[in-house]
Design a protein that fits this description.
Blueprint: H1 8-31, H2 36-48, H3 54-69, E1 81-82, H4 84-89, E2 92-94, E3 101-114, E4 119-121, E5 132-148, E6 152-154, H5 174-184, E7 188-192, E8 203-206, E9 211-215, H6 220-236, H7 248-265, H8 278-282, H9 290-310, H10 329-333, E10 357-360
Parallel strand pairs: 7-9
Antiparallel strand pairs: 1-5, 2-6, 3-4, 3-5, 8-9, 8-10
Pfam families: ArdcN (PF08401), Peptidase_M78 (PF06114)
GO molecular function: single-stranded DNA binding
Domain IrrE N-terminal-like: 203-271
Amino acid sequence: MREDTRTPDDQIADRIARLDALHERLASAIDRLVTGQDWRRAIEFAARFRSRSFNNTLLIWVQHAAAHEEGRVPDPYPTRVAGYKQWKALGRSVDKGQAGYQILAPVTARVAVTEDGLWRRLGKGEKPEAGETAKSRMVGVRPAYVWDVSQTSGDPLPTQPAPALLEGEAPPGLWDGLAHQIQAAGFTLHEAPTAAAIDGANGVTHWLKRTVHVRADMDPAARVKTLAHELGHVILHDRDDVDAVVHRGIAEVEAESFALMVAASHGMNTERYTVPYVATWASRVPGQDPVTTIQKTATRVRTAALQALEQLETPQIPDGEPPSSSISTVVADSQAGPRQTASAAQSALPRPTQSSTGAEGPGV
């Protein structure tokens, strides 16, 4: 490996410049998620790469698309993504000339934490003082690289089973699993005979009454998708939020996106899902630019959906990690391997708005 002869200041300046470029590419990628179909594809893609943050998923998506257009990879979508050393551990090598996909990897450090939660970074060999505990903490991010399996050669990977559903069929056990989570949150679940019984909606969540209603006259797939939408309201939206009415559009986008990610993780056909026009609601949050709004919303949806999926005992599609991998995503993401060129970006944020009554309308 060639020795790095740059000064520490030059190395820091180079890292900052690369991070700035990554964040600019990320903002550009997020800014393009302006229509319901763009948003749906991004959420569905994130469902296939659940082990990655939404922003790193977006980075991988746009860079793989560029590689496909350039003829460097055979398929338009990646299937398994890992770091250089992770592929090596699995008996595979990155093919010569294949540029890695640049993502943001965590930088951790030893810190001393007090009982009040205050922390300070520990120097090399430094020990915590009385009343402090030494812990590892994320203190920043740095550029790192990953490669799709199609960019590697070597030992074959085991085939992982994936759910296969017929049109209109619901994944076995999914209704019961979602219903259990709704009931565990203190809500009672009811069937509505028709949409007319719940004001023309497919489902309704009522926070004051702590009830969830779902139409009974739909096919199983539509009913379980609606139930997932209402669970999204239950998990994400609190009737006491001040901005509930102002940002009702965001609440509906979040609930529908939550349902979309749950459905996609179970191999359900998501083509019929519709999400409200993203640019419209994202531009209506006072004091916040649309890119930040979209980024926060996507992060909230992914976090909530992963929590729900972890509680389900249902067959789910693979999460984008190579099978039989003993190396965690965090470690793999931090293994840059050979230097390569790349394009696109990532980060993560908090929580926007909610509504006292979440209603899923027909086709929404």
